[in-house]
């Protein structure tokens, strides 16, 4: 899995590409996200437009990240969610744990 | 973890309600099976006894008839009819048989135990001799009577028949009494079983209910209300319920213990106001007069880059960049001036190194006349950046407006000076004024769009659009501008223009921004190419290719942000509002398409605008 990091103003956009279907992928995503979280005080969004699928490891990672953000009263902002991922979150009853945005711009604007 | 039950697995439990009904149903079924088995055995036994009795009766009757028959033959051969009749009467009188009679079929009765019956006075001289027949025994199940027909030989002649009837009811009465007594015993047994069942069913019901509760617990049920059984089911039920309640109490005690422990360790945020504060994304710190931290929420710990435990142990003057914080806290404690101090830590220009711009609001609060300082911390980095971008936009916009206005004023003066003497100069001036006015109009249009984008109300009105005039106008507008800058502009247009479904004004706005940008950022002597293609489904692709300065890959996403311009020293002298590309992309997306960029530093850029065909757009909608 490839993870790209972009900056939109003061907001960092993490964009993983490909499915998160192994423990290694999940660990890579967790490490990257927690590192960005520490540097930006939580001012980041996860662009999942290129993340075609997540398995239980990936879901656990997303929950870990949002739980870590919850320490500071925030929650993980996901943007450009595919129908598959949206369905996975609904089935696992995790939708409410995340903030969801149509695209990166809207997600970035939510920090204002 | 308990493995989930397979949904299609056969589960007998679903056919029974919980509790006593299972025992009742099972008990009744058991009694019914037992009764059926005992009844079957009794019936078969009685049947066997019946058959044995009948066989024995027939044997006795056969011997009796043989004995009476031989006596009768002897007396008939002697012609002693009276002796024969006495024999019949004696046989009945002795109780050996119930009826006895000797007759010659077709002629008459020779002797009978029934004296009222008419009998022959003497043996006929002749009668038809019939072939010898075997002894015939017939048992009538209805009357329990056995009839024997014994052929006799009189004077060497066949045809005389001894017929005796024996009542066998006395012999077969035994099996009926067995049946009757068995039914009686079974009835008594069933009644006794029902009584025993009534006595023990509660205890069995308790076991069944407890069993079902265990099954439910195995399936993951943990609610005590669902696992309790009725106390009236007996001692076992009471013991089970007590165990469940004790388990619940232990669980409650454990949670209570954890809460107490948590509150004692300073993390008293499981319930109440502290928990509410902990959900805030703004940091909250309560400081005492000794500058010690009395309370901090999670967000504050994140902003101050410490854990909550660390913050609880250190005074605020040991925090990083604490000078301003301490000054503000001391100011509100000493009530110097305002009781509310506001300041920011961090520089928006140094985001990379400092990470954030934090806004601190310090206010004085009192609890039981004890003064305390409440510090409210907010991350305003993005707001400050946005404000900076907007300020930059306003400055750029003013500059953008001033340029065409200046040009218009100069050419207007020239046209006035030329008057009617030099029509060539006047016409050129009017053309420039016209062109600059349209440019001005576009800039104002873009600025209006910005406010619409900000409000989220930017929309398009799709209509059937002939694209040929659109590109003709674009060509006319930019050829002169490119020529002024010594840039070669090439329009690679298709021979035929299909109609598309689009908003003419908005699409024109997007194309003007893209072509205008290409000319703006291409140095003199460069080349700009506008290549237009239509697919079979009328989807339109416009590629604007320049060989200008190019854009760093890291800036590719950023250049589509509002008020953002690429972070590149080479364009510092070029005026621009930073909204053109954002607007072009927004308009393309409202049409169901997009604007993308491919670029390399010093090699040039290609911006591609894609508008889907009407059918594709309808599907996407």
Give the helix/strand layout.
The complex is a heterodimer of chains A (112) and B (621).
Chain A: E1 2-8, E2 11-17, H1 23-40, E3 44-47, H2 56-70, E4 77-79, H3 83-91, E5 99-101, H4 104-109
Parallel strand pairs in A: 2-3, 3-4, 4-5
Antiparallel strand pairs in A: 1-2
Helix pairs in contact in A: 1-2
Chain B: H1 20-77, H2 81-93, E1 99-104, E2 108-112, E3 136-140, E4 145-154, E5 157-167, H3 169-218, H4 224-227, H5 235-264, H6 272-278, E6 283-287, E7 293-296, H7 298-303, H8 308-313, H9 322-334, E8 340-345, H10 351-354, E9 358-367, E10 370-379, H11 381-418, H12 423-455, E11 463-466, H13 467-484, E12 488-492, E13 499-502, H14 504-520, E14 527-534, E15 540-546, H15 580-590, E16 594-600, E17 604-611, H16 614-620
Parallel strand pairs in B: 12-14
Antiparallel strand pairs in B: 1-2, 1-5, 3-4, 4-5, 6-7, 6-10, 8-9, 9-10, 11-13, 14-15, 15-17, 16-17
What does this structure look like?
The complex is a heterodimer of chains A (112) and B (621). Chain A has 112 residues and is an alpha/beta fold. Chain A has helices spanning 23-40, 56-70, 83-91, 104-109; strands at 2-8, 11-17, 44-47, 77-79, 99-101. Chain A has a single domain (2-107), classed as Transcription Regulator spoIIAA (2-Layer Sandwich), CATH 3.30.750.24. Chain A has a 5-stranded mixed β-sheet. In chain A, helix 1 links the parallel strand 2 (11-17) and strand 3 (44-47). The mean pLDDT of chain A is 89. Chain B has 621 residues and is of the alpha+beta class. Chain B folds into 3 domains: 1-96 and 169-262, no CATH class; 272-379, PAS domain (Beta-Lactamase, 2-Layer Sandwich); 459-620, Heat Shock Protein 90. Chain B has helices at residues 20-77, 81-93, 169-218, 224-227, 235-264, 272-278, 298-303, 308-313, 322-334, 351-354, 381-418, 423-455, 467-484, 504-520, 580-590, 614-620, and strands spanning 99-104, 108-112, 136-140, 145-154, 157-167, 283-287, 293-296, 340-345, 358-367, 370-379, 463-466, 488-492, 499-502, 527-534, 540-546, 594-600, 604-611. Chain B has a 5-stranded antiparallel β-sheet. Chain B has a 5-stranded antiparallel β-sheet with strand order 7-6-10-9-8. Chain B has a 5-stranded mixed β-sheet with strand order 12-14-15-17-16, covered by helices on one side. In chain B, helix 3 packs parallel to helix 5, helix 13 (467-484) runs parallel beside helix 14 and helix 14 runs antiparallel to helix 15 (580-590). The two termini of chain B are 45 Å apart. Residues 1-9 and 14-19 of chain B have low confidence and may be disordered. At the A-B interface, strand 1 and helix 4 of A face helix 7 and helix 11 of B.
């Amino acid at each position: 899995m490839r993870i790209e990091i972009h900056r939109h103003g003061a907001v960092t956009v993490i964009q993983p590409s490909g499915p998160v279907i192994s423990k290694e992928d999940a660990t890579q995503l967790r490490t990257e996200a927690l590192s960005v979280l520490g540097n930006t005080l939580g001012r980041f969004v996860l662009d999942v437009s290129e993340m075609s699928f997540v398995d239980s490891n990936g879901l656990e990672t997303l929950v870990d990240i949002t739980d870590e953000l919850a320490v500071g009263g925030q929650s993980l902002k996901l943007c450009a969610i595919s129908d598959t991922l949206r369905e996975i979150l609904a089935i696992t009853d995790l939708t409410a744990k995340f903030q969801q945005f149509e695209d990166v711009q809207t997600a970035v604007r939510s920090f204002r | 973890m308990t493995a989930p039950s397979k949904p299609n697995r056969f589960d007998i439990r679903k056919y029974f309600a919980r509790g006593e009904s299972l025992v009742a149903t099972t008990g009744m079924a058991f009694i019914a099976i037992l009764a059926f088995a005992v009844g079957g055995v009794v019936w078969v036994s009685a049947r066997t006894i019946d058959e044995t009795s009948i066989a024995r009766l027939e044997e006795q009757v056969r011997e009796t008839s043989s004995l009476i028959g031989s006596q009768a033959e002897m007396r008939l051969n002697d012609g002693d009819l009276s002796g024969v009749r006495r024999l019949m009467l004696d046989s009945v009188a002795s109780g050996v048989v119930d009826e006895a009679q000797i007759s010659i079929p077709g002629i008459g009765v020779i002797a009978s135990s029934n004296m009222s019956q008419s009998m022959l006075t003497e043996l006929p001289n002749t009668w038809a001799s019939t072939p010898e027949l075997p002894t015939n025994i017939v048992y009538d199940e209805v009357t329990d009577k056995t009839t024997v027909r014994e052929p006799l030989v009189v004077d060497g002649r066949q045809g005389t028949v001894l017929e005796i009837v024996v009542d066998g009811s006395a012999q077969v009465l035994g099996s009926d009494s067995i049946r009757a007594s068995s039914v009686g015993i079974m009835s008594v047994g069933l009644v006794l079983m029902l009584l025993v069942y009534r006595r023990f069913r509660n205890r069995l019901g308790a076991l069944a209910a407890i069993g079902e509760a265990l099954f439910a617990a195995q399936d993951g049920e943990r609610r005590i209300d669902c696992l309790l059984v009725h106390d009236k089911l007996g001692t076992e039920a009471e013991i089970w319920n007590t165990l469940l309640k004790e388990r619940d109490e232990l669980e409650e005690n454990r949670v209570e213990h954890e809460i107490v422990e948590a509150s004692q360790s300073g993390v008293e945020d499981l319930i109440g106001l502290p928990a509410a504060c902990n959900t805030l994304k703004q940091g909250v710190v309560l400081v005492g007069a000794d500058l010690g931290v009395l309370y901090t929420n999670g967000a504050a710990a994140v902003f101050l880059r410490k854990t909550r435990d660390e913050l609880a142990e250190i005074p605020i003057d040991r925090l990083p960049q604490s000078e301003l914080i301490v000054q503000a806290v001391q100011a509100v404690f000493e009530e110097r001036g305002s009781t509310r101090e506001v300041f920011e830590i961090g520089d928006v220009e140094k985001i990379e190194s400092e990470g954030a711009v934090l806004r601190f609001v310090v206010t004085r609060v009192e609890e039981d006349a004890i003064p305390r300082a409440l510090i409210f911390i907010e991350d305003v980095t993005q707001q400050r950046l946005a404000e900076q971008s907007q300020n930059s936009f306003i400055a750029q916009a003013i500059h953008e407006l001033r340029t065409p206005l200046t040009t218009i004023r100069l050419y207007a003066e020239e046209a006035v000076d030329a008057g009617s003497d030099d029509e060539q100069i006047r016409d050129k001036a009017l053309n420039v004024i016209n062109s600059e006015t349209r440019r001005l109009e576009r800039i104002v249009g873009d600025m209006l769009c910005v406010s619409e984008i900000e409000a989220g109300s930017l929309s398009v009105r799709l209509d059937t659009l002939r694209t040929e005039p659109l590109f003709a106008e674009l060509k006319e507008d930019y050829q002169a501008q490119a020529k002024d800058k010594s840039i070669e502009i090439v329009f690679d247009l298709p021979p035929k223009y299909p109609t598309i479904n689009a908003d003419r004004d908005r699409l024109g706005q997007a194309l003007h921004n893209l072509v205008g940008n290409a000319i703006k950022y291409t140095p003199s002597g460069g080349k700009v190419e506008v290549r237009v293609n239509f697919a079979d489904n009328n989807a339109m692709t416009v590629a604007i290719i320049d060989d200008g300065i190019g854009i760093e890959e890291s800036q590719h996403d950023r250049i589509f942000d509002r008020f953002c311009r690429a972070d590149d020293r080479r364009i510092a002298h070029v005026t621009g509002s930073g909204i053109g590309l954002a607007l072009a992309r927004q308009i393309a997306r409202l049409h169901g398409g997009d604007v993308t960029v491919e670029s390399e530093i010093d090699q040039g850029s290609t911006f591609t605008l894609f508008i889907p065909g009407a059918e594709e757009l309808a599907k996407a909608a």
